[in-house]
Amino acid sequence: MGLGEMNKEVTEKVIKFVTMVILMGTIVIWIMMPTSTYKEIWLTPMRAKLGKSMYYGKQGVNLLVYMFPMILLAFLGCIYLHLMKQTTVNQFNSGVEKKRAKFAALRRPMLVTGPLGIVTVTEVMFLTMFMALLLWSLTNYIYRTFVTITSESAATDRNSLWQARLDLIAVRLGIVGNICLAFLFYPVARGSSLLAAVGLTSESSIKYHIWLGHLVMILFTSHGLCYFIYWISKNQLVSQMLEWDRTGVSNLAGEIALVAGLMMWVTTYPKIRRRFFEVFFYTHYLYIVFMLFFVFHVGISHALISFPGFYIFLVDRFLRSLQSRNNVKLVSARVLPCDTVELNFSKNPMLMYSPTSTMFVNIPSISKLQWHPFTIISSSKLEPETLSVMIKSQGKWSSKLYDMLSSSSSDQINRLAVSVEGPYGPSSTDFLRHDSLVMVSGGSGITPFISIIRDLYYMSSTHKSKIPKMTLICAFKNSSDLSMLDLILPTSGLTTDISSFVDIQIKAFVTREEKNPVKESTHNRNIIKTLYFKPNVSDQPISPILGPNSWLCLATILSSSFMIFIVIIAIITRYHIYPIDQNSEKYTWAYKSLIYLISISISVVTTSTAAMLWNKKRYYAKSDQYVDNWSPLIIESSPQQLLSQSTDIYYGERPNLNKLLVGVPGSSVGVLVCGPTKMRQEVTNICSLGLAENLHFDSISFSW
Fold it and tell me: Where do transmembrane segments lie in this chain (predicted)?
């Protein structure tokens, strides 16, 4: 090991230690927050010192306690991922990855069926601890306040005893809801280092966002209902609902936020979301209204508790908007007979991504607002200048795209304007730690496995790495779906049989058709229609928005934007807010909240735009010249011909997954599944019941 690698290893260990200390300290604060120890011993001295500050006022305590640690954790996560990227970008041996094998038991599924979907042991542990935190906070808050309420104290506010208690219960429900809200935005920050640093992806984290969203709305709705009952009991419903307090809690703002939240919540109901996806998609833009009026309702001091996640989300969201402003170069498309389209984009060689990554696609000619995620089937190593996605016609948006490209007039389409966001995926993969790899797919669920096969093929053929034996078990409804197998290998002039480098066996099952020799003979590349486009000069290759050192650049954006935000707030507070607060008339909560929100926006927009322009000037000016030299690929051999000896097709039957999985040889067999819910549950049961000790589920198997 060289001196440089030793320094990196030491730095990684230091970052891990500091991160653990900050994380544990933050957890302790969350646990202690409802207690009298925190209120009287910890918080009082901090407010005594910072609360009188002319630069931050009472908000300085929450900035220090809640917002600063999470921004620092995100910063350290970026540095850690940057170092990991430097040490693993060309490292293909499995020695490092095998260290993760000892945690395989924690990744095993524990819950298979039920409202939560497929949940691992680790997820159950963290979910239990989080629910315990909420229950602890709620019960502790209620207990500490109930003991202080008497009939005499309630009478001073013209309340009966039950009314005073109901009032306090409503407040405590809102406070606990704010704790859930503090975590709500982390899972949907697609490019966040906090997800990647712990091995999560934005797609696998969506279910956490769903869980937290339900908790937030249950608590906030209960909070609102308690107050409606309280106001009705005091005959003050209308006056209280319309109240907007200048220097206190604004009821009207809270009601607007609650209505916006309820509209989003209703459209998440599975039947509504699947049948009316556009309604669900557009309604979710109400998160802007929800957060704005939530801040107006509780004031900026309490809102800072939930601001760290929202801050990181805003950075991610603005970077995505910068990337999606430009159209990308769509160079070709392949139209398959199974209502499926493969789109091939020009890619900057600097853009690297892991297998199973996803990318969001927007086609303005179909819908200007809708963005849909699709799994990338190409390998950034095997195809350095091409990025491909497969789109199955299943909804209105994808059906319009297929109809457009498969119509008789599609040859007249010279250009298709497309914008993208991403790619987003795992920071690293550990498939090499397995002796065998079994991939089970249903229909278009084959897409993530295509990228894995291509990536492993590159490792084996270029770096002579030892890769696991692969078995692809795919179930299709009709024989036309077999054309998806043609996408397993790229049309890049592969002349060598894949079996020379990769030990792969493909078992394809056509469930709704019996064997038909005529149909089987027509399954070849001649039925695939290929379209070539002529991109405009303004179209750009898909490139990393923050350059090759994206994690390091993101760390710079997080740290610099937060410092700029702190400086702006300090100046405005010292010379504008503080002098007014010293008078008898206090500064309005809504105006103060707006100042904080605008300051955050200015800092995020300024630093993100500067980082994007700096990277564009430094890297992309020299690398764009290769794009103009792109020409259609010459296909020397059909991918289906290269894979024909490794493919077995079964008609009129479903795969016996128990038989196929249990008998796989090898001390460590990685099992991946992507497909319908019943298929995922069946594979999960086989692996979790211990029928074969060598079967290990991988985290990407758990799609919502």
Answer: 14-33, 63-83, 110-136, 169-189, 210-232, 252-269, 276-296, 551-573, 593-614
Please report, as a single letter, which amino acid is at residue 681: Q
Cβ contact 224:250 at 8 Å: no
Residue 313: predicted pLDDT: 94
Measured CA to CA in angstroms, residue 563 lies from 71, 185, 205, 604 at distances of 11, 21, 29, 11
Alpha-carbon distance 680 to 674, whole Å?
A: 7
pLDDT band at 631 (very low <50, low <70, confident <90, very high): very low
Which residues, 6+ apart, have CB-to-CB distance to 432 below 8 Å? 92, 93, 94, 97, 459, 465, 466, 467, 468
pLDDT digits (tens, 9 = 90+) for 225-282: 999 999 999 889 999 999 998 888 899 999 999 999 999 999 998 888 888 888 888 8
* Sign of the torsion angle spanned by Cα atoms 284, 286, 292, 297: negative
469-476 vs 436-442, strand pairing mode: parallel
Query: Are the C-beta atoms of 454 and 498 separated by less than 8 Å?
Result: no
Most confident of 500-509, 564-573, 657-666: 564-573
pLDDT for residue 214: 95
State both tokens at 12.
């990684």
Both tokens assigned to 470? 């692969």
Name the helix (H) or strand (E) containing 206. Answer: helix 206-233
Q: Tell me how many degrees the CA angle 108-110-111 measures, rounded to the nearest 5.
A: 135
Q: Which pLDDT tens digit goes with each residue over 292-317? A: 999 999 988 889 888 999 999 999 99
Structure tokens at 537: 């000069």
HSE-CB at 208 with a 13 A cutoff on CA atoms is 25
**CB of 704 closer than 8 Å to CB of 206:** yes
Mean pLDDT of the region 556-560? 95
Enumerate the β-bridge partners of residue 390: 342
d(CA 476, CA 652): 10
Give per-residue pLDDT as tens, 141-151.
888 888 888 88
Rounded CA separation 420/412 (Å): 24
Q: Is 199 left (phi over 0), alpha (psi -120 to 50) or beta?
A: left
Q: Choose among 541, 546, 628: nearest CA to 347.
A: 541
H or E element that contains 166: helix 161-184
Helix (H) or strand (E) holding 217: helix 206-233
The domains of the chain, with CATH numbers, are: 1-88 (no CATH), 330-492+499-517+526-543+656-699 (3.40.50.80), 550-616 (no CATH)
Task: Tell me the H-state helices in 304-429.
Answer: 307-324, 396-406
pLDDT of amino acid 699: 56
pLDDT at 492: 59
For residue 282, how many other CB atoms are within 10 A of its CB?
13
Q: Nearest-CA neighbor of 424 among 189, 202, 206, 208?
A: 202
d(CA 331, CA 631): 9
Contact call for residues 439 and 472 (beta carbons, < 8 A): yes
pLDDT band at 55 (very low <50, low <70, confident <90, very high): low
- C-alpha dihedral, 251 to 253 to 258 to 259, nearest 10°: 110
637 — pLDDT class (breaks 50, 70, 90): very low
Buried b (16+ CB within 10 A) or exposed e, 177-214: bbbbbbbbbbbbbbbbbbbbbebbbbbbbebbbebbbe
Cβ-based neighbours of 231, under 8 Å, separated by 6 or more: 237, 240, 241
Are 308 and 71 in contact, with CB atoms under 8 Å apart? yes
Amino acid making up residue 192: S
